[in-house]
Request: fold
Amino acid sequence: MSLIDLHCHILPGVDDGAKDLPMALEMAKAAVEQGISNILLTPHHMDGDYTNHKDDVLKKTEVFQQEIVNAGIPLKVFPGQEVHLTGELLQAIDDDDILFMDEGGKYLLLELPHSGVPEYTEEMLFELMARGITPVIAHPERNHGFQKEPDKIFDFIEMGCLTQLTSSSYLGVFGKKVETLTDKLIRANLGFVFSSDAHNFEGRRFLMNDAFKKLKKHEGTRKAELFNSNARSIINGEEVPVPEITRVSDVKNRRRFWVF
Ligand SMILES: [Fe+2]
Reply:
């Protein structure tokens, strides 16, 4: 199964990901080693630290793809953005400064502030959906607000949003709490795709193959195939099937066997 990564910071020199071209190419190789064949490049946009205008990302993606080809790395990259939730988002869409996850402008990779879920989030999600846009909430399992109130994720999916879970969250890279929530989101059918959110070679790596291996072991091959086909549907702007969902609070803890 060749994997599709919809969230990744390897476009060189544009944010806190790959700092230059040599590093970006090394990361591209690492991605291929993890079984990835297609990557949506999603530099941070409008998060208070980084601005990556649509036109700039389009041009830089083209240059980067050529460098990848020149280096003989079998990887296809697409232009995207990790769009931060801000009051200026609708204006930026009107100004045609937003890149979606698909060419047709259906799916938007939306990052919420790490510290919590702002009051106006729900209203903004409605506004986006009224425009025919499906917000794909980036790594909800890492957000402090969702960690306190995971049932909010259920509510947002019921409204019509999707979620992107980060592969390394599922593997415990961000600690047990994040790992457990990721596991519960998957079992509640509140997770739709794995993406790497890779930034570097240290803490935030690709680990897609490893996450898919674990997913297969715990939830079966079908679920793993579904996650990857959902990613393909998103990048192609096609419908993603939403199965019956459950609230995280209704998901039982995994049974533990204590040995004394
Ligand atoms: Fe990211």
